[in-house]
Amino acid sequence: MDADVGAMPLPAFDGVRVNVTEGQTVSVPLPISVTFAHPVPQSARAAVEGQLKVTTMDVGAEGSWSWVTGRPLADGQRVDFRPLTPWKPGTKVTVHVGAGLTRHFTVGRSLIAADAPGH
Fold this sequence. Notes:
Elements: E1 17-18, E2 25-26, E3 32-35, H1 45-49, E4 52-56, E5 59-60, E6 63-67, E7 78-83, E8 92-97, E9 101-107
Parallel strand pairs: 2-9
Antiparallel strand pairs: 1-3, 3-7, 4-5, 4-8, 6-7, 8-9
């Protein structure tokens, strides 16, 4: 299905949230999470994914959307985007969610933390 962003408004986008705020700088490994107010039925997920678009510096981002299960949310209530390869620090990313929600953010430095017991 070749869905243009905003081509078909879906009820799923009422009350949708994205885990990044406008203008935020995020760590490299952060996935983009879109959380819906209500679970999206299996039969509507392809249409919803058709209205989720991620671009980097005006070029489509290679990656995939994956519906999250086993979380405190109901099945079909959250979908995550992970890029095929990690974005480089400084990459500017735009996320379009349906016709009414757009977020722009920048990828910051890679941050990997470890807890060293006894130190």
